[in-house]
Design a protein that fits this description.
The chain has seven helices and no strands. The protein is an all-alpha fold and about 130 residues long. α1 crosses α5 and α3 packs antiparallel against α6. The protein is globular and about 35 Å long. The chain starts with a helix and ends in a 9-residue tail after the last helix. About 40% of the residues are buried.
C-alpha cells in the first residue's frame, strides 16, 4: 500500500482530514518504534510503504517501557492534537497497519505491548 493510500485509510478510520492523518501516522509509528524491540520494528517496516519505513527505524534493540497513557501522550504531542484525536488516530494507524503487515507479523509486534495499547488495533464493535 502506497504512503498516500495509507494516509487516506487512516483519515477515513479516524474521521480526520488527510494532513492530520499524516501527522497521526508519523507520530504513532515513531511512538510504536520506541515501545517495541528494534527487530520487531524492522520486521514491521519491511511490510509498509517505503516512505514510512524510516519512522520505524530505531537506534537500539531495547524497547522503552511505558503504558497506554504515555503512548497516547506521545502521539498527541508529536501530532499536535488533543488526546481523544490521538486515541482515534493511533487506533486507525494500528488497524491499517494490521491489514497491511499481515496478522502473524503484526501479532508478534503487538505481543510486546501492554494489553491496552494492543487493544487499539482491535476493531471497535459498532452500536446496534
Amino acid at each position: 500500500m502506497a504512503e498516500l493510500q495509507f494516509f487516506e485509510k487512516v483519515a477515513a478510520r479516524a474521521g480526520v482530514p488527510s494532513d492530520t492523518a499524516q501527522s497521526l501516522t508519523e507520530a504513532t509509528l515513531r511512538t510504536l518504534a520506541e515501545r517495541i524491540s528494534g527487530g520487531e520494528a524492522a520486521d514491521l517496516a519491511d511490510h509498509i510503504a517505503y516512505e514510512l519505513r524510516d519512522l520505524l527505524v530505531k537506534g537500539s534493540e531495547e524497547p522503552e517501557v511505558f503504558g497506554y497513557d504515555e503512548f497516547l501522550r506521545r502521539v498527541a504531542d508529536r501530532a499536535g492534537v488533543e488526546q481523544d484525536v490521538a486515541e482515534r488516530g493511533a487506533r486507525a494507524v494500528l488497524q491499517t497497519m494490521h491489514r497491511v503487515v499481515g496478522h502473524d507479523e503484526f501479532e508478534d509486534a503487538m505481543a510486546q505491548l501492554p494489553k491496552e495499547i494492543g487493544a487499539l488495533a482491535q476493531p471497535v464493535p459498532r452500536e446496534p
